[in-house]
Amino acid sequence: MQWITVSSRDLDWSDRRFCLSLNLPRPEVLFGEEDVPFPAILRPGLRPGSWTMVFGHSHWSHPENHSREWISALCLMPEEADERKCLYLAYGFRRRFGPLALMEKAFLVRRLCETGGYRPEELAGTWLKALELPPGPTTVEKMMRLASWPEPLVPIAEQAEINPAVLLQLAELPCSDAEAIVPFLQRHRWSHSRQKEVVRICLDLAKIQGTCLADIVADCRQVESALPGETAGPERAEAVRIHLLRLRYPRRREAEEQYEACRRKLRLPPEIRLAEPPDFDGEKYRIQFSFRSRRELDRAVESLARLARQEELDNLFRLV
Amino acid sequence: MTRTGASTQTDGSAYRPEFILVEREVESLPMSVRIRERLPEVPFLPVDRVDSWLSEVGNSRDPLRAGKKILYLTRHQGQVLKTCQGMCAHVSCCLYHVVDFACNCPLDCSYCLLQNYLNHPLIRVYVNTEEMLQELEGRLQRLGSTVLRVGTGELTDSLALDRYTLLSGELVPLFARYPTAALELKTKTAEIDSLGRLEHRGRTVISWSLNTPRMIAGEEWGASRLEERLLAARRCSDWGYPVGFHFDPLVWYAGWESEYRETVQQMFDIVGPGRIAWISLGAFRGPAGLLDTVRERFPDSTLPLGELLPGVDGKLRYFRPLRVEMFRKMVGWIRAVRPAQTVYLCMESPRVWEQVFGFRATTADVGRLLDAAVLP
Questions:
Q1: How many Å lie between the alpha carbon of B59 and the closest alpha carbon of chain A?
Q2: Any A CB within 8 A of B63 CB
Q3: What is the CATH topology of the domain spanning B19-374?
């Protein structure tokens, strides 16, 4: 078995060894056997008053154990939580194992409170900063709520690769809402920015309709079930998103439908592209066409002249 | 929080800070002394830096609310008179100018842009007022026949701190001396006691931001109730002041039509149409980040639930047909009582003006409209 040693010297994140500046006056209190939830041995360090922690490398190297065990290590050092050490620990962790996932941070925050003896307000500054979370007591509360999600939801949230900002937002929801939306996000695999948009719309719709997220998600399932069976995942996700957008912005949807109806009636030739003002807020349409010969240009100009004579244009102008 | 604990302010009651921090350099200026005298029981603390206070406020549950409990007396730097920040290429503006005697507001409206605009949660009061007034007067002296409308309510409520600063007592008589200048004091409070005995010559418009009772109760923390504002307006009108009203932000919610209609009616019932210089209409709008702040700080707010979409200037606004519908209805209800009432739109494009009023107003048009409403 290989070993990683944690000694009392300054940080040295070399390949196999890393050293932490542990200044533990009463290590037996912090590291009593029953408190050490992972294979670790504590022994006197090289200098008086310093201690060395030794971890089994095989245990550490197991991917599923990395973060959990590191979290345990962090939790065992409540008296050491000055800003410098918090930052060192977070930095060291990132360097060695990659960034902590938000759920892992949530478990860390909970352990710091429950096992580490921290009061939530003590974590609101330096610790949250070290964990790259927005400072403030509300974040601690959100993290505690995330950590108390039902066990089966946690792996789903991890698999869904949810945008951390969105996950924090979900932490504010009742568990039943989280249980509805997390699998929904996992199923559709939206990008982080799309996740943000979709969750925002779902939350708004739930408020507007006076319903819960489970109902919104169920409604989306109906849309999905109406899609042809061979529809690919990304297209399915996009159809659901568009459905949600239409529910959320009904007047805009109406204008869009009218615009599409007008456009169809105008029967524009394929070489001419018509673009509406973004969100119908401006007052000008844009036409674009390309040509590579005098003949093509003549044809496009003729098409434009025909377009300008159509009565349907008036309906188009009424939309802006 | 130890220094900035629970709020003691309740809706509609007068604002009272919990601490006054004063930069040592301005401690002895007359405005600092005046504020101290008028708030004798509030701790008055000379400071070199406010970092530790900012840090404490920053760690509180709601730093923006916590910051409002601290008055920070400091010096205004830079130009005193500025153009209104609403002026931009996409909208027809009213050629308004602003002077900021304070920065940040004791009130806490859910929709307030300052939440995302200010980088400092304390209420800064600029106490080098003598210098500021001097510079302002210099500008007024050079006006000639040019018309200048000036407001003090851009970064704060014009009157919410007036009982401590007594600033209106200096501003109103100053503007009374210049026939082509007009001052607008814009408020959501009923803090008008100091205005009664001032020489104003009709050069100061006292104006109120109005909304429906539901919106005031739900979205305008610390502000006076609708009836209190209207009764205050009535008193100012009785003192000979022209008064103005700003229905801004208009908010689209279930039942908005009947409630805004009643509010318009109540305004005319209590104040009477005679002395209303202008009424502005502005639909709720703001940068995208504002909605996140509203959701975070005011989870029960209905504002983010509107059909808000980014406009040509990047700001979120109600989808244009909805805005036009609101404006048209408001104009209809107002003009049903007073057909000649000056009504204008705040931060709207010429196209929206056209859809509401039937003509495309330019910035110059709007400026002239308001000049005519307040100047002889």
A1: 5
A2: yes
A3: pyruvate-formate lyase- activating enzyme (3.80.30)
